[in-house]
Amino acid sequence: MSFVKYLLPALAATKVAFASSDCGDTTLETQVDADGIASCSTISGDVTIKDTYSGTLALNGIKKITGSLKANNATGVSSMTADSLTSIGSNFTLNELTGLTQLSFSQLNSVGNIYWEALPELQSLDFPKGISEAGDVSIINTGLTNLNGINLTQVGDFNIEDNKHLESININELKNSTGVINFSGNDDGLNIEFPNLYNAKGLTFRNVSSVMAPSLTVAKSQLGFWGTGLKNFTAMNLTQTGDLTFNDNPNLNNISMPNLQTVNGGFIIKLNEKLDSIDLPKLQTVGGAIQFTGTFNELEFGSLNRVSGAFNVQSTKGNFSCSSFESEFKQKVEGKWKCDSTNPQASTAAGSTTGSDDNSGSSGKSSSTSSSAAMANGVYPATGIAAVFFALAQLF
Ligand SMILES: *[C@@H]1O[C@H](CO)[C@@H](O)[C@H](O)[C@H]1NC(C)=O
Ligand SMILES: *[C@@H]1O[C@H](CO)[C@@H](O)[C@H](O)[C@H]1NC(C)=O
Ligand SMILES: *[C@@H]1O[C@H](CO)[C@@H](O)[C@H](O)[C@H]1NC(C)=O
Ligand SMILES: *[C@@H]1O[C@H](CO)[C@@H](O)[C@H](O)[C@H]1NC(C)=O
Ligand SMILES: *[C@@H]1O[C@H](CO)[C@@H](O)[C@H](O)[C@H]1NC(C)=O
Ligand SMILES: *[C@@H]1O[C@H](CO)[C@@H](O)[C@H](O)[C@H]1NC(C)=O
Ligand SMILES: *[C@@H]1O[C@H](CO)[C@@H](O)[C@H](O)[C@H]1NC(C)=O
Ligand SMILES: *[C@@H]1O[C@H](CO)[C@@H](O)[C@H](O)[C@H]1NC(C)=O
Ligand SMILES: *[C@@H]1O[C@H](CO)[C@@H](O)[C@H](O)[C@H]1NC(C)=O
Ligand SMILES: *[C@@H]1O[C@H](CO)[C@@H](O)[C@H](O)[C@H]1NC(C)=O
């Protein structure tokens, strides 16, 4: 697409009214090109910022871009501002804008998807209207310290990775995610608050310090915490999850999910050395295996009625009775049975290694049906995620 056709009118007068057909796909190489489309109230197509663009960019006048606003590898762009833009229909893609320090979109409210990656100098967002609607949001390797301005009420996949300065997030209005909310590799002190998140497809947390989601009722595909600094996790209204994992959270001393009834997948609690007590008063059904290992003293299942996979419970110093569990629950467990309340190895990863049990994230019967069943439900097998994570963790 030629930007040249906008140059002449731009030089003539920015007030020239364009027929809407002239306001299609546009590539911007300089501010003059941007001025040339300033009288387009709607751009019916994409606005692409050329990688050779240098300096500040003001996208004034435009109210709506029906397609994408994108810049790849435009390392010379120092700021982007837009005084009238309310919506971007498709992608808002910023990739490798290593010189970008300012994003000011005073009216922006709705975006198809956000894909931002490698914006190391961008420390804050200036979105005073707040982006309340977006599909998928992926924010990777930026200098952001918070996500103020991202005021979503609902989101698809929400992937927040490798933002080394990200310290706190509070998305007060977020009620609903149709995709996976995924945090990893951000500042280890990151505090996350989703005060009103009610229904999520999935939530996975790595390298975070606290997670507050008091209204959560369902995490359909998964809920998992790996290698976090979390001290406690409280979800009073949580009734149902997919795979549920608390793995390697050395400060975790309290898991409170008093209304959890159904885990549609594997349920793993391991390597949480401060966790002394596990109480699951309403848990009835586990669609995969239960694998709890550690140093916990108390363990209570109030209502356990069906476990489709294995039951593997091992503690170094548990004051719970494996024989009463056995008489109460063994006939309700379809997979292998293992219970040991005083296994000195149980506090280490090795302590939980009991053959195939360890891999039975989603089924106790056979690992092949396990992973295909899990995948068919759009669930990542917990062991797969952990494996990927540990592989990635080597890179840091
Ligand atoms: C980005 O631009 C630099 C310099 O122009 C170039 O060397 C590099 O290959 C580009 N990277 C990508 C991913 O296009
Ligand atoms: C939006 O970005 C995603 C991820 O990069 C890409 O798969 C998709 O094709 C893009 N959509 C459009 C309309 O450009
Ligand atoms: C966006 O959310 C933040 C934090 O919850 C809040 O302070 C701000 O007022 C909200 N902005 C708008 C425009 O709703
Ligand atoms: C969440 O959003 C999806 C997509 O818009 C919608 O279908 C679903 O009903 C919403 N769920 C809740 C609980 O609001
Ligand atoms: C979540 O993060 C992990 C680890 O970085 C990554 O492997 C995975 O693809 C992410 N998931 C989504 C849905 O973005
Ligand atoms: C939990 O559910 C109850 C009953 O539906 C509701 O009244 C309460 O506000 C919910 N708590 C939170 C923190 O959302
Ligand atoms: C994330 O946490 C893991 C496990 O605790 C750790 O090995 C890794 O170094 C952390 N990564 C970052 C970027 O802090
Ligand atoms: C949970 O941990 C947070 C800090 O991460 C702390 O402020 C809060 O008091 C703790 N709540 C309980 C019930 O222990
Ligand atoms: C865990 O925290 C909840 C409140 O969040 C509290 O009611 C419960 O007593 C705590 N359990 C333990 C073992 O500290
Ligand atoms: C273990 O539990 C029993 C009954 O639940 C109790 O009587 C006993 O004092 C407990 N022992 C320890 C060391 O906590």
From TrEMBL:
Region span, Disordered: 336-368
Gene Ontology terms: biological process: fungal-type cell wall organization
Signal peptide limits: 1-19
Pfam families per record: Ecm33 (PF12454), LRR_5 (PF13306)
Chief localization: other
Annotated TM spans: none
Protein name as catalogued: GPI-anchored cell wall organization protein Ecm33
UniProt lineage: Eukaryota, Fungi, Dikarya, Ascomycota, Pezizomycotina
PANTHER family linked: RECEPTOR PROTEIN-TYROSINE KINASE, SPORULATION-SPECIFIC PROTEIN-RELATED
UniProt keyword list: Glycoprotein, Signal
One GO cellular component, as annotated: cell surface
Domain of life: Eukaryota
Organism: Penicillium chermesinum
Annotated Low complexity bias: 351-368
Signal recorded as keyword: yes
Biased composition (Polar residues): 340-350
InterPro entries: CWI-Assembly_Regulator, LRR_5, LRR_dom_sf
